[in-house]
Structures are given as C-alpha cells and as structure tokens.
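Lab manual, section 2.4: Encoding a predicted structure.

Procedure: take the sequence of the chain (250 residues), apply the prediction step described in section 2.3, and record the output as structure tokens. A sample record is shown.
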Amino acid sequence: MLEGHISKAFDGALAALHIRVIEMGGLVLDQVREAARAYTSWDLQAAERVIDRAAVVSAYDEGIFQDQFTLIARRQPVSRDLRAVFAMEKSVAELERAGAEARKIARTVLRQSGRPARATSTDVRQLAQLATSLMRQSLEALDRLDGAIAAQVIAHDEELDAEYAAGLRRLLTRAMEDPRHLDIAMEAAFVLKSLERIGDHARIVARHIQSIAPQEGRAAGAPPADPADPSWPADSSASADPPTPTPDAS
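Recorded output:
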C-alpha cells in the first residue's frame, strides 16, 4: 500500500526515506494513544512503556536526519524532490515534538501526585480522541501525499482547539469548587495542553504535506496559504514573473 502511493512521486532512496518517516509517525501515534490511556486509566505500566519507547522515537529522528543528509549529498536532488526532502525533514521534527508531549503525559502519571477525578479523565479522553484522530489523518495524508486529507486536518484542528478551551474551563471550575485538589487540576491542565499541542503538530505536518502534494489532490475550497503561519511554506507563485501585457491593438 505504501509503495503504491509513493512510487509515483519518489524513487529509490527518496521512497525509502518516505517509508521511514511513516514508520516513525506510526510509533508516535502509538505513543500518544498509550500516554492518553495511561492518564485516563491511571495505568503505570502503560506510562512506563511510553517512557521506554521514547528512545526509539529519538533513534528514528536521528536516523532519518542522517538518511536525509546522505540523500542530499549523494543525489543532489533538485526542484520537487528537494522540496519533498525538506518537507519530510520538517515533518519529522513535528513528529518528534508530538512524541515529547506524549512523554510529558506519561511522566505525569509516573509522578503519582494524584489521580484525576472521573470528570477530568473524561475531558482528557475526549481531547485525546481528537488529537489522535488528527495525527492519524495527517499520517494518512503523508502516506498518500494527499492534499485533500491534509486540508481536513487543518480544518478540524479548530474543533480540537474549541474542545481544549471548553475542557480547560470545566477543569478550572471544578478546581475553584474544591481547592483541595488544585495541584491535581494544574497537572491535568498541562495534560490537556500537551494534547492540544499534539493536534497543532499534526496540523503543521499537514501544512508541509500540502506544499508537496499534487495540485489535483487538494480539495475544492481548501484553506489558502496563511502568511501569518510560520509553518506554511512560502508561496512559489508569488515569485513568478508577471504576465506579459497584451499590446494595444489601437
């Protein structure tokens, strides 16, 4: 399935690099799911597995960086291939950051400073479902180089942001009603923030995918480039030569 999607756009070493990035993304997605389950179920073993596998995520990050360096040095890719290499590099950086957020959640459980209330666990579970869904979709878009799926990730990130804000308000309300559990509420707020950031990393990956996806793969009405978003690549059309004016027939 992977080869069927990427063989049209990549060949040889570039295809192997693409597969490695997808493998890393799958591991990060598992880390996010496991960390969320560790917190909502207060599962110490699950949290320990997340911490143990963090080294594997870092190894992927370092190995892919070396592969990219070797690819550029040996093949000297140009044009679209070079843009693809850079997009992969930036996507790997976002995946590594998402993995770091999962590690933070796992460490919260291992500190055992206090199990969250059921209502808080429910809020975290709902936000985790949205975050993992965005991450899964961004990896699917990366696998297929599908700009339409990438556009869906970018659009749905607003839903995650709204759920994060609502969950945080509910958490603060409960904390004010029972200040005895303020410390637990503060840690829960950091967990919610980590999940919101994971959604942001998925959105940025989707932005990078849009920069290299075939134009026909983008959905109708897909969001245009946002110059204020540093994750959005520069619009190459902006530097194109202006059209030659047509001479006046008169």
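Check your result against the sample. Residues 2-225 form a domain with the Methane Monooxygenase Hydroxylase; Chain G, domain 1 fold (CATH 1.20.58.220).
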